[in-house]
Design goal:
Layout (H helix, E strand, L loop, with lengths): L1 H29 L25 E13 L3 E6 L2 E7 L2 E6 L2 E6 L2 E6 L2 E8 L9 E10 L10 E11 L4 E10 L16 E13 L4 E12 L7 E13 L2 E11 L4 E13 L1 H4 L6
Antiparallel strand pairs: 1-2, 1-3, 1-15, 2-5, 3-4, 4-7, 5-6, 7-8, 8-9, 9-10, 10-11, 11-12, 12-13, 13-14, 14-15
Length: 280
């Protein structure tokens, strides 16, 4: 009897370190998803980090509600997914659906098909921020889509400091030229160029993040105009694979003033039930 118990204890002593090691990739992936500030969830400014290779994130009905003084209400939802196709390379596909209310008129239609690639150029070090390069295209799919493909290129940077403080910088330039407002009712929601800064504070023990951002851009169809925007937002990881985000902000300066709010949920899954091989 004693020999049997001793054998079981010896086996457990050998097995539990291996079990713990196998669990670590899933936990490490799950417990840091809340830090990945994807564009629009909830900030326009995003960090330079990609999802891990083979990791898969589904954005479920993220919603943005905008109320523009004198121009009605615009509600958009942009379901989509992100997939780590290569180490430090992320593919994003989104399908924006827009509902516009102007007086008694209501318009509901797709506003394009968005496809993007984000490449994290390096891992952040003590002396060097993490840098990323983003390529995006909005394809003419739907009644509110641009009349031709709208493309842009962006540069991203993320720098981490003590106490969970992070600073992000984005700059984007359109390669499509100026769209015609009369032919593209959503033209001003694209940009000829944009730049922005964001600062956030992470709370790893609570799996939460809060942040503040400011952006300046030139809307398409309004050359020479400048729109500023400020927003406050947060992300919360409620379960290993589920994240919630919300934000509130104000924009103006391009001939109109807008209040907006965002809310969304993300479902994250690594390859083979959350264990991500290869890492970034």
């Amino acid at each position: 009897m004693n020999n049997t118990l001793s054998c079981r204890r010896a086996c457990l002593a050998r097995v539990w370190p291996l079990a713990l090691l196998l669990a670590l990739p899933h936990e490490a992936h799950a417990q840091t998803d809340f830090m990945n500030t994807d564009r629009g969830r909830p900030f326009a400014v995003e960090d330079a980090l990609t999802v891990e290779r083979w990791a898969f994130e589904v954005q479920l009905s993220p919603m943005r509600i905008e109320r523009t003084v004198g121009a009605g209400t615009r509600v958009s939802t942009t379901p989509g997914f992100s997939f780590g196709i290569l180490p430090r390379v992320e593919l994003t596909v989104e399908l924006p659906l827009v509902e516009r209310h102007t007086g008694s008129r209501r318009t509901l239609s797709l506003a394009g098909l968005d496809v993007g690639l984000l490449h994290q150029l390096n891992t952040e070090s003590e002396h060097l921020p993490a840098f990323g390069l983003r390529l995006d295209a909005t394809l003419p799919v739907g009644g509110l889509a641009p009349s031709h493909a709208h493309t842009s290129v962006g540069v991203l940077a993320t720098r981490s400091f003590d106490d969970g403080i992070r600073l992000h910088a984005n700059a984007n330039l359109s390669g499509s030229g100026t769209l015609q407002t009369s032919g593209d009712p959503e033209a001003r929601f694209h940009s000829n160029w944009s730049t922005g800064l964001a600062i956030d504070k992470t709370f790893p023990l609570r799996f939460a993040l809060v942040g503040l951002e400011g952006t300046v851009r030139e809307p398409n169809g309004l050359p020479g105009m400048r729109e500023w925007s400020v927003a406050l937002g947060s992300r919360l990881q409620v379960e290993p694979r589920w994240l919630l985000d919300a934000g509130l902000g104000r924009s103006g300066g391009a001939g109109y003033e807008t209040w907006f709010a965002t809310v969304g949920a993300t479902w994250a899954l690594g390859w083979r039930y959350g264990i991500v091989p290869g890492g970034r």
